[in-house]
Design a protein that fits this description.
The complex is a heteropentamer, with 1 copy of chain A (256 residues), 2 copies of chain B (225 residues) and 2 copies of chain C (230 residues). Chain A is an all-alpha fold. Chain A has helices at 4-9, 12-44, 58-85, 89-120, 128-149, 153-185, 200-232, 237-244, 249-255. Chain A contains 9 helices and no strands. The longest helix of chain A is centred in the N-terminal third of the chain and has 33 residues, at 12-44. The two termini of chain A are 16 Å apart. In chain A, 41% of the residues are buried. The chains are: A mainly alpha (256), B alpha/beta (225), C mainly alpha (230). The structure holds protoporphyrin IX containing FE, adenosine-5'-triphosphate (2 copies) and magnesium ion (MG) (2 copies).
């Protein structure tokens, strides 16, 4: 009985119907925050003394970097929940999170290299941070490739969940070893973070952008999950009703 | 029906592949001493059912009871009492028949080497004990797999098309073995498209368990409710 | 069920012995990763030119990378043939802890690839003009590292065993997990080449091996149950 | 037999189309050699350290070696699945020149691995700090080189297709044949990096490709007849 | 014997595997209009003989004549007139049944797509045209391979255990096809351990061609002389 709520949470239909109401709010919040932060950061924050205007890419680069990491943990944790409690919804979240995470790491790598060109004079530098992000993107790729390789959906879900979990054990190890590798080989000639004596007037828009990107990420994750739900449940009555436009879904949702 | 409790009970078993039910509301009791042939045309789900009964596949609805206990609770005891022989013979082609059997002997625990030699002789492979299996014909390969039956101590035999590739005398020998196993209080579940010549053969036709629209909804609800 | 432990050990040993016989009978399989290792290393001077200073500088890293690739290449065969002929199913439904029989298979895999790789590495070190004081480090680090790689790789092999062409997918899955091993392994040899102490790196590799010993057979067993079920 | 040529072209096209569909359907197989290439290159700085001068010096050679290894890894699947399901036998006894249908398969193999490898190489060049004036040479040499490697590799794949685990044996057979390609390919890039002309190397690669185009399909067809017969 | 010349003639065929003769001095004539079942217990060499007749294996002694010409000289014509279906079905599991057949259509040259659809319907796979083959059961997979018979223009069919995994109705349909092919002037060579229900079935038992010590010596001489 205690687990009732958990199983409710695990019901794709419940999730689909609940999130219906959230979507507009999330959308408004995300766009609002991103717009405010973007205009503030790009238009009004002061120019950096050394890097001139090129530093402004930071307002995309840094928030996306933070999220792409949390996304991995969201993916791995939902995989674990799915494996342990044998629920369907977490697997769908996991499957939805993987490509988003890959996209985010690619954005970090791309904005990073675009930034690197004016600041370091090269597109790519074997810095510890960058390297570990590259490896993170490989981990995502592995999960996605494994998920797609299986014909059977259950097997695909469980197998990629196991892989995501094994990856979680490894992420801290990877970070430590890459850090260590870098310091061993090279006295830091350049540093990405660390000199965070950043001016507050640059920092506030950054916070806004970070929160904005988190909300945006939540929105995208929910949207992907909803698509996945519809794809998987396409046979069930409630989805058929939904697609055929029967309007009584809300009433039924309340009953069950 | 016998008075003794059923060895294996299937209750409301249903199985879905490719968004299509193969069978549903499958209820059946299997008793010690029976040889049961599972029938059904191509693609009706016989192999799928046997893989479920062998514990290889867990992708089904419904319950299975082993000696009146849910299978989940008695998985270990059941595994000890089960011999499964699938479509694939499970024979390493680089090993000899004897080496293959020796590994299977270990799977089941403690069988003397002499018994393995005897088992091979029983399937007409005397003289082939030390020939690598890639040199054997299709039927001889299947005979190596079937030699496991001779030293098995399992109560339940689950055999998927064991008569494939066997010649006439091979078929007769296997039938004799099934009869003997049932007489000794064992249970045999077997699929085959050929007629099996065993007295008192029980038949289970998968076409008798068609899908019923109401039931579908109940599963959907169970899954999503 | 009477004396569980002796019964238990018997399937472990039977699987161990069977796989060892198979490894010896397919001599090619045992020799092939070695040959790959040898040829891959030979190609390096051909592609880079024979400058000794360059080769010396890159030898520790390149030898480690190639050992890693050779291990990767051999992973696919770990469970594949058992899957193809149905004996993996039999292992799965046997009344016996799957992790133990999986461990037996991993052990044979290491004996047949990791150990010979380690023994051959000094020869290749000579070919790439590895400094004399790095040879011991090369052997020790490879000994620990290849064992850990066999264990971790087994998880990848188990996940992909039922895919028709898992061969290269394993690389994708397993390589990120190998990166810490590579970093510490290569660094041990590099440090030794500079004449410094490399105990720390070996300790880390040893710790990694210990964790892998505990977790990998369990994870591989779970992965097998999932991926064969389909 | 009436209009032999239209009939002839039809099995060529049918095989070409079928293999292309298969390549797209197993998307993994097409992407995997690429991913292997990417990850293998990534491991190099991790093993060697991030010193730019060293990386720059070895970039041409290492990229070529890894492209070669990626091609090697993908060879095993060229005829394997056709052999396993019996359609290779059917190709063999079809009233149609085997060399032509084999050529269709090789063509698809190159389109699915060699071409994408070539297109991805510049990205990896950036990662290894390849000098800017070497990028064109990298692309041209890989374009010619990967095509030649697919063709030559097909012979090795054909010879080993009936062996249960040919995977690594192919490497052994094919690598010596790849060495000239590697030498000229890597040297083209190296020369370009130094700002010199590399026409000669490209000419040699082109000549090699022409010979391979003429001989390899015939040799692979012959090898298939021999090795499947057993 | 018929007055017409034999379609396929085997003269003094002998085959050795593992330093042991499977059959020797095998002489046989096969005529248009015949269905020939090749018999023999497991391991007697049926598959080996069919692979020789299909041109897959060239490892034998003796001569084969196609329409009274040595096979070596008429290999191309023979290949045009041959359909071989071995133990392995030759079906790509990632392709759909329709895509598989389209490739086989190209192997034989020019068959309309509509005919392929019809061929699939004939083997009861209507509705499965676009299901990937890895989703089919053992029997359904074999039916895909057998669908080739429907649009084949080959005179000689060489079929190795084609009844494997087929259900009763599948067996009956295949038998009807064999009869029709023979009636249309074709020749069918088939192995099976089951009885084949075809009027006027010819039997060729491999046990009728045992090895004779003298012969062995003559081969040795030919090989080493
Ligand atoms: C953990 C992931 C990452 C985080 C949290 C992160 C965050 C940041 C932050 C906060 C800054 C500004 C700090 C400063 O001005 O010093 C920055 C700078 C920069 N980042 Fe990242 N970043 C990450 C990964 C990457 C990656 C993967 C790349 C390249 C592909 C990259 C390239 C750059 C560049 C070029 C700069 C400017 C460098 C400079 O000012 O010296 N970053 N990053
Ligand atoms: N590749 C091989 N190498 C050596 N010997 C072989 C090989 N293949 C088959 N044989 C031997 O040839 C004999 C005949 O094999 P074949 O497969 O032709 O038998 P078969 O009549 O088809 O039997 P079945 O009814 O079991 O299919 C077998 O005894 C086997 O040992
Ligand atoms: N891996 C799978 N994924 C999806 N569907 C499958 C899978 N395996 C089997 N099926 C489907 O399940 C059905 C039953 O298959 P199964 O192999 O159980 O049949 P069967 O009764 O054993 O048939 P046969 O007599 O041909 O062996 C088939 O129609 C097939 O399409
Ligand atoms: Mg079946
Ligand atoms: Mg046979």
């Amino acid at each position: 009985m205690n687990w009732q709520w958990l199983h409710r949470l695990g019901s794709p239909r419940w999730f689909y119907e609940k999130t219906n109401a959230w979507l507009p709010w999330l959308m408004v919040c995300a766009w609002g925050l991103l717009l405010v932060g973007g205009i503030w950061g790009l238009g009004f924050a002061p120019e950096d003394a050394k890097q001139r205007n090129s530093y402004r890419i930071l307002y995309i680069h840094a928030p996306v970097a933070f999220i792409s990491m949390s996304c991995y943990y969201i993916m791995a944790i939902s995989g674990a929940v799915g494996l342990i409690w044998k629920m369907k919804l977490p697997f769908m979240v996991m499957k939805a999170a993987a490509p988003i995470g890959l996209g985010l790491t690619i954005v970090v790598l791309a904005t990073g290299s675009i930034w690197g060109k004016p600041t370091w004079g090269t597109w790519w530098e074997w810095d510890a941070r960058l390297t570990s992000y590259l490896i993170l993107s490989f981990l995502y790729l592995g999960v996605i490739a494994l998920q797609q390789a299986f014909q059977n959906r259950d097997t695909a879900d469980k197998a990629s969940a196991i892989l995501a979990l094994v990856g979680t054990v490894n992420i801290p190890i990877i970070y430590k070893s890459v850090d260590w590798w870098y310091t061993l080989h090279q006295p830091a000639t350049l540093k990405i973070v660390g000199k965070s004596t950043i001016d507050p007037s640059m920092l506030y828009p950054l916070f806004v952008m970070i929160v904005g990107f988190y909300v945006f990420f939540t929105l995208v994750l929910i949207l992907h999950t909803r698509t996945e739900i519809l794809r998987r449940e396409s046979r069930s009555q409630w989805v058929k009703d939904l697609v055929l436009g029967k309007s009584n879904t809300k009433g039924e949702g309340a009953e069950s | 029906m016998t008075a003794a409790p059923a060895l294996l009970e299937l209750r409301n078993l249903a199985c879905e592949r490719d968004e299509r039910y193969l069978f549903a509301q499958l209820n059946a009791n299997f008793y010690a001493g029976q040889v049961v042939q599972i029938l059904g045309p191509n693609g009706s789900g016989k192999t799928t059912l046997l893989r479920i009964l062998a514990g290889v596949s867990k992708d089904f609805y419904g319950d299975i009871f082993w000696q009146s206990q849910p299978l989940k609770d008695t998985a270990w005891e059941y595994a000890n009492d089960l011999l499964y022989l699938g479509h694939l013979p499970g024979i390493k082609k680089s090993l000899t028949p004897f080496e293959n059997l020796r590994w299977y002997a270990a799977v089941q625990g403690g069988v003397a080497d002499a018994d393995l030699i005897k088992a091979l002789a029983q399937v007409q492979l005397a003289g082939y004990e030390n020939t690598p299996c890639y040199r054997l014909s299709a039927g001889q390969l299947r005979r190596v797999a079937l030699a496991r039956l001779a030293f098995s101590r399992a109560k339940v035999w689950v055999l998927d098309e064991p008569f494939t590739a066997l010649d006439k005398s091979g078929v007769a020998e296997l039938e004799a073995k099934l009869i003997a196993h049932a007489a000794a209080g064992g249970l045999v579940l077997v699929t085959s498209h050929q007629d099996i010549n065993v007295p008192n053969l029980q038949l289970l036709n998968l076409l008798d368990f068609p899908v019923d629209a109401q039931l579908l909804n109940s599963h959907e609800d169970a899954a999503y409710g | 069920m009477a004396n569980l432990s002796s019964f238990a050990s018997s399937l472990f040993w039977a699987t161990f012995k069977r796989d060892l016989i198979l490894a010896f009978r397919h001599k090619g399989d045992m020799v092939n990763p070695l040959v790959f290792f040898l040829i891959a290393i030979t190609m390096i001077p051909l592609a880079l030119g024979p400058e000794k200073a360059v080769l010396m500088r890159i030898a520790p890293g390149i030898i480690w990378v190639m050992a890693l690739l050779a291990t990767l290449l051999s992973l696919d065969s770990l469970f594949r043939s058992d899957f193809d002929d149905g004996s993996l199913e039999q292992l799965l439904i046997a009344p016996y802890p799957l992790a133990l029989s999986v461990f037996a298979k991993i052990l044979v895999h290491w004996l047949a690839t990791g150990l010979p790789l380690t023994l051959m590495a000094p020869l290749l070190g000579v070919m790439l003009s590895l400094p004399a004081n790095a040879f011991a480090a090369l052997c020790y680090s490879l000994l620990l590292g290849t064992a850990a790689m066999s264990l971790i790789g087994a998880v990848g092999a188990a996940l992909t065993v039922s895919l028709r062409k898992g061969g290269v997918l394993i690389s994708l899955i397993v390589m990120p997990l190998y990166i810490p091993i590579l970093i510490f392994g290569a660094s041990a040899v590099q440090t030794a080449a500079l004449g410094e102490a490399y105990n720390m790196q070996l300790a880390v590799l040893g710790a990694g091996l210990a964790i892998a010993l505990l977790l990998a057979p369990l994870a591989a067993a779970g992965a097998l149950r999932v991926s064969v079920n389909a």
